[in-house]
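Our platform keeps sequence and structure together, in a single record for each protein. This encoding replaces a full spatial description with a residue-level series of whole-number codes. We quote a single record here, exactly as it is kept in our systems:
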Amino acid sequence: MNHGLIRAMTEAGETAESLAGQVGVDPKTAQRWVNPGRIPHPRHRSRVADILGQDVEDLWPDLPKRRQPVWFRPWVEIEREAVALRAFQLAWIPGLLQTEAYARATVEGEGLSPDEVNEMAAARIARHAILRRHGGPLYVAVIDEAVLRRDAYGDRALMAEQVAYLVECAQLPSVQVHIVPSEVGMYPGLGGAFTIAELPDGARAAYVDSQAAAQIIDQPSELVTLDRRWERIRGEALPRGRSLDLLREAARAWT
């Protein structure tokens, strides 16, 4: 049984039937949510968490690990414990800022079944909870402007939704989004994406992307190299307010 969900329902005075009515699902569907491994659709998870006054990851703690590659799972744990995250992305919207539809689009065409695509996207979306929980990390994202302009299989509505969501996230107290504008020429970010995490005990680690698998780095000398690269990339990005203006313009351009 999902004891965390059951306990939260009891404390909130809710039943499967009352949740079903508020979420808009059949009571039998809501009843199945208390069974091990039964996880609601992402939009239903968010609604249930709001009703119960809990974080999604507390109600379904194993969700972020579902369908995650084995090599990625240690980073999920680091991400959840971090007090600060600094992320640079050259090709995609950062995973912590993606909509469900955009997340699915990034893994479609990889030879996965529709269910596998949905589960991978859901696991990615579940990681978002760290940005909205009390005491969550400071998240600073620097994104190349080309990411905002890149078409997603001809689906303008998907990109309009994604960039609008990015505008919303950029206004969260714990989130800063900075854009490297298109007029910037060659700069260190062209070497690829990475994220640096700072942990409560002062330890640090970094996640560096590649085509086959990512690498988690904790060697001080390599972290210093990434720190220097981060500062140079951040120096090319627009301030927070001007970045938000550019995001809003990009969102309008997709509608």
